[in-house]
Every structure is written in C-alpha cells, then in structure tokens.
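[Meeting: bench + compute handoff]

Bench side (C.D.) handed over the final construct sequence. Compute side (W.E.) agreed to return the predicted structure before the next meeting so the bench team could plan truncations. Sequence as handed over:
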Amino acid sequence: MDFSITGTSGQITYDNNGNLLTMLQKGVMPGQSAPLVVDDLRYSYKPFSNKLEYVTD
C-alpha cells in the first residue's frame, strides 16, 4: 500500500521561511484496494509574514 505524503513535485514543498506550501496525503477507505487521495492541501500566508491566511483542499 502507498501511504506516502508528497507535494506537487513528489515531495512536500516549503517556502523560504520553512512554511508548508503543498502536501498531498493518501489513505485507504474500507472496501477499496487502492489508496485514495485524502488531502491535497495548498497553504497561503499573509504577505511578508509566517501567519497562515488560508488552506485549500
């Protein structure tokens, strides 16, 4: 089973401040044999700040 956590380029991506930018997480639903995408997260921060503004899934 593939329970990997990756970003858009095959890894979790970060900005220059170390903030998460993208993360894709897989999981298995009961009755399913193949992993499904559970979360496909994209993070946005306020300009010139480490303060999280919003997350989209």
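W.E. noted at the follow-up: Residues 5-56 form one domain. C.D. will use this when planning the next construct.
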